[in-house]
Specification:
GMP Synthetase, Chain A, domain 3; three-stranded mixed beta sheet; 3 strands
């Protein structure tokens, strides 16, 4: 009879009582099964305590969103200062905690982008206008309607992601502004070559 798969803690316990295992195989592995069951209660914590596969310090998995077990991930999010809806998948939450945990990176563009990305179509761009209208405390953020899935949710996330003291102005735009058009097209001939009608100019995204 093949030795049963064992929990990590159970296997360690089994090795530590080796003198008692001499007849375990012949009896159908009762000791292995018993110790594995005992170890099941401690296995998750043991995974956090151990040195990682790449030499990471013990307990460091609890502070690493890539290695933290799912059952501890929401606690890690709280510690990292992340505001999150419970409907988020663990993969999305790991990405949000990752390099953009608000307690460390709050207010940076990366943190803001990570907070609202799930409410935009994949690959969408979030646009920032700092010192908008000449006001050092005025931050204008906008997305485009064609790429925006839930503008109300984005507005709510931005309130938590943008530092206090800044005047937040979030907009959902239909198309590019005249300034953006000039940025990408130096001449009128370039505009004519790129757009068939004036409506195309107004409703197209910048680029």
């Amino acid at each position: 009879m093949t030795k049963p798969d064992m929990t990590t803690v159970g296997a360690d316990l089994y090795d530590s009582v080796a003198p008692l295992t001499f007849a375990d195989e012949q009896l159908g592995w009762p000791l292995a099964l018993y110790l594995s069951a005992l170890g099941l209660m401690l296995d998750e914590v043991a995974g956090l305590v151990r040195i990682g596969d790449n030499g990471e310090d013990g307990w460091s998995a609890f502070a690493d969103p890539a290695r933290c077990p799912d059952s501890f991930l929401y606690t890690l999010a709280v510690w990292a200062g992340v505001r999150y809806p419970r409907r988020m998948t663990t993969d999305d939450l790991r990405a949000l905690i990752g390099p953009h945990a608000p307690s460390v990176w709050r207010g940076t563009k990366g943190a803001i982008q990570a907070a609202v990305a799930r409410y935009l179509v994949p690959g969408a761009t979030i646009y920032f206008e700092e010192r908008a209208d000449g006001n050092a405390y005025h931050l204008r953020i906008f997305t485009y309607a064609a790429e925006t899935l839930d503008s109300a949710a984005i507005q709510n996330e931005l309130r938590g992601a943008v530092p206090a003291g800044l005047i937040l102005d979030y907009q959902v735009r239909v198309g590019q502004t005249y300034a953006q058009l000039k940025q990408y097209h130096a001449t009128y001939a370039s505009v004519l070559a790129s757009y068939a009608t004036y409506d195309d100019v107004v409703h197209s995204m910048p680029g």
